[in-house]
Amino acid sequence: MSPDSVTPGSVRSAAEVNEQIRALWRRAGGSLSAQEREEYELLVVEWATALRGEVIEAA
Asked: Side-chain half-sphere of 25: how many Cα atoms within 13 Å?
């Protein structure tokens, strides 16, 4: 995974991160390698953070 793929404090929207998660699963064919699993876990954390930020911003 490239260091630029997931940056702490990223300002990407939850939708953007979700699309990257979906693309990862498509590339992997439904079965993640150890490296892809690590990337997936980082993306899920980033997605959850972005989603929380969007909910707080909407409130």
From this structure: 9
Handedness of CA 13, 40, 23, 4 (dihedral sign): positive
Q: Taking the model in full, what pTM does it have?
A: 0.75
Distances (CA, A) of 12 to 28, 33, 55: 23, 25, 14
d(CA 22, CA 15): 10
Q: Are 10 and 52 in contact (CB under 8 A)?
A: no
Q: What is the pLDDT of residues 23-57, one digit of tens each?
A: 999 999 989 999 999 999 999 999 999 999 888 87
Tokens 């909407």 belong to which residue? Answer: 58
